[in-house]
Fold this sequence. Notes:
Chain A is mainly β and 312 residues long. Chain A is 14% helix and 39% strand. Strand 17 (302-309) of chain A pairs antiparallel with strand 1 (4-11) of chain B, so a sheet runs across the interface.
Amino acid sequence: xxxxxxxxxxxxxxxxxxxxxxxxxxxxxxxxxxxxxxxxxxxxxxxxxxxxxxxxxxxxxxxxxxxxxxxxxxxxxxxxxxxxxxxxxxxxxxxxxxxxxxxxxxxxxxxxxxxxxxxxxxxxxxxxxxxxxxxxxxxxxxxxxxxxxxxxxxxxxxxxxxxxxxxxxxxxxxxxxxxxxxxxxxxxxxxxxxxxxxxxxxxxxxxxxxxxxxxxxxxxxxxxxxxxxxxxxxxxxxxxxxxxxxxxxxxxxxxxxxxxxxxxxxxxxxxxxxxxxxxxxxxxxxxxxxxxxxxxxxxxxxxxxxxxxxxx
Amino acid sequence: xxxxxxxxxxxxxxxxxxxxxxxxxxxxxxxxxxxxxxxxxxxxxxxxxxxxxxxxxxxxxxxxxxxxxxxxxxxxxxxxxxxxxxxxxxxx
Lengths: 312, 92
């Protein structure tokens, strides 16, 4: 008996071979991988090693459990037939199931709508009018419910000092975020509004832009405080916005000299704070001339930047 | 011949520029007319030059034709998860 125990002691060890450790690490979110790189010398620069990143990529694409919103979901396709917008839901392994959705409502075919963002949130889409006057609707295809989000004209007027001295005011609306505030069980839309006015004495002038946020629960808008330096996007590129876990994200191009370069803006509905994450040019010149297309996506719980580049 | 590449990167930590990690560069591909959206597993949908709707499967790096491939003027595809709750939830 003693000799068996002796043998067992010999083989018992706390050493975990690297291949097992790497296999475990490759199942973690990229944030954790990056943090664990400093634990041991053999783990350093893991995210630059081909063998490790192959395992990591396979796990990332094969596990969708970290993206519970869209499990078992389908895709929504917008087409244009006989002068009308039509929407299809397509699903199945090769998208062989195609169902035409009922889009008969008071706004259909009166306005040309674009689909905001990356997908539905709890079954609801945010559609916005394809011009700058900002007709925005929330649409749930399953229940056929459609809700017009009225615009905050009075709120914008209130932001203008001596508004009575202006003969006319023109607002341009740029939707930046649509999502669910789980703290308040409310749906929100975030808009950047640029304003020009015709002043009675000085003529045409541009006025300070404002950030406003819509609450479905109160059916009203208010200004977002303390975000005057939040980067915006005036390019209105479809799909450069995503929502995940109470946070809205959008890509912002370098509009003026205040930014170091293109960046991702992450806005928390819970406390209305935001983060700026710059996009290094060595990673992706995503607003470069040779970039033909950019999108944001959620890939197994991570924010993904996808771009399509042409030849130099 | 004109060729093009897809680049896919993910972000590790909000606010940390260095935490972006490049996952894939796929290409060169010469058959793409225009990309129109991304699916839940990172499938990139695009209209091919022969006007068919296809997607790039990142796990196999192959191009898959959709069973429903008739295209009129599709310009956008997004993720849709059905939900029969009223807009704004039960409380409304």
